[in-house]
């Protein structure tokens, strides 16, 4: 089969690799219908994090089950399934507590499962999915339309991550919410905040095209400034006290500082941007009871309820994919995202 | 009148000071029935924080209203009232959001009100209480019994602070909770966790007398180790994953590190110990979704519901006062708390 391989900084390519096989009775083999590139894929692409040359990459996909191990019971051959960005058994104490992202027996695509067998990356024609029962979510109704497919794919990571920011920040009906970051996760956060009933959604965005998309997705206000300059404009929209909930969708020191500065006393910063040089302003946070909640999103836990809304057409996170091609176009998708020409790149296989 | 005055490090004394007067129509004058010494009073006492020599101190008291300004409507002469550790108007956007500790027009006892007049400290015979309607909570039933008085006094700070740790950590019925810190706030946290329905309460305490009190107040388990050595014992009590909620009631670097290390993925550390050299282990917190929520407790917001339970006899936080005397004994109370001979010192006037 063919799959995307990481060769080195700014160098990924589509290569011929061995077909996956069932190793464990809990495995399934999935033929990929669509996959995409994550903002976090850019870290190794840019050399900001280590990755072994020759490794298989990608962690978001929708596909059709081609084979299942003897112990798999909730997923059958022919099912259309969504894979969250990590695999998990669904039964360990952390899964039971609602955090499959910390599954004791889980792992990540391209990494090893609990028995030491390597799982495939998500950017390829076929994927061995460990812990299929706990991991894969069946899409009812069989093969999805081409219109629906992108929104299903968005549920594998970015939509669930934006939702996690909103849940972590405690977004409630009627709330005034600020979203720091206008990338794919930030825009998913706008969708999530609207879905949870926020009345006012302030998007911090300095790109005209993303501002327009943010407004289409539910943002009621846009603040163009960034960093310290964004604080006063947000406060002036909120009688000087700050917003009821902040979605921090970047992870830098500047974005975290902005998030805390615009959060009202007693509110929470919901953070899902992996911290890069970010710090918590602990004294100010303590003085005014601004909490910090979030982390690596437990996407699998949110998938069923978000899938229901995608199928009902009430949310369409597939709109975030502004670069579309086939498997061979994925390297170009990385480049487009790296150069900020695209919000998020998707491949239809 | 007589009141306690801070003279310098390890030096407080009872002095003759001017009687307070109504300055603003929203003021009340309260004759103090009982007052106490807070762990945070020890900071200036020990020279760990700055304080002007000659300043008036104390921020916890129960008393009888002696005079009210013309605009006061919810508090009348003769009412027995509890004062939370900060004054607040009860109507500003932050008060309305449930965080009177961040009241826009508020302040602290011994500090200045929004009009620039200095409020009295709580450790004295009389106190001018600014914003009386928003601040003071009337105790129904008139003069309390000597048995009830300590528990009412505990509501002015320590009980509400322990409760805030529990609320911030998200303690729910059936939860397994750890309490870091066996001082008056930590022990209040034990009471609060039990009150909120925690099934298992693990007290981290190395003092035999405090361990015994913690167990009487609701702790089901005690871990004697401290710092890194406490982690393994707590994990072994929780199938290796950590507790559902952590109450961090100290504020040091060590206590915060312990709190995060014993919090299970997806849980929250509720912190109420003013941070002193504490840091958030952001990468680990992100990886496993351990949140940090809390801060200076909005005690006034919690007072009515906690008062109801004190009056019903379901909680008796007055048990924390293990040093009792009169106004003249307060300097000895500071010394006893400083030398860890007492958990918390109370004076009956």
What's the short version?
Two copies of one chain form a homodimer. Helices cover 28% and strands 24% of the residues of chain A. With 349 residues, chain A is an alpha/beta fold.
Helix and strand layout, with pairings?
Two copies of one chain form a homodimer.
Chain A: E1 2-8, E2 11-16, E3 28-36, H1 41-45, E4 61-68, E5 80-83, E6 86-87, H2 93-96, E7 107-108, E8 126-129, H3 132-135, E9 137-138, H4 149-154, H5 158-168, E10 176-180, H6 184-195, E11 200-204, H7 208-217, E12 221-223, H8 231-236, E13 243-248, H9 253-262, E14 263-271, H10 282-287, E15 291-294, H11 299-312, E16 323-325, H12 330-338, E17 345-348
Parallel strand pairs in A: 10-11, 10-13, 11-12, 13-14, 14-15, 16-17
Antiparallel strand pairs in A: 1-2, 3-4, 3-8, 3-17, 4-5, 5-9, 6-7
Helix pairs in contact in A: 5-6, 5-11, 6-7
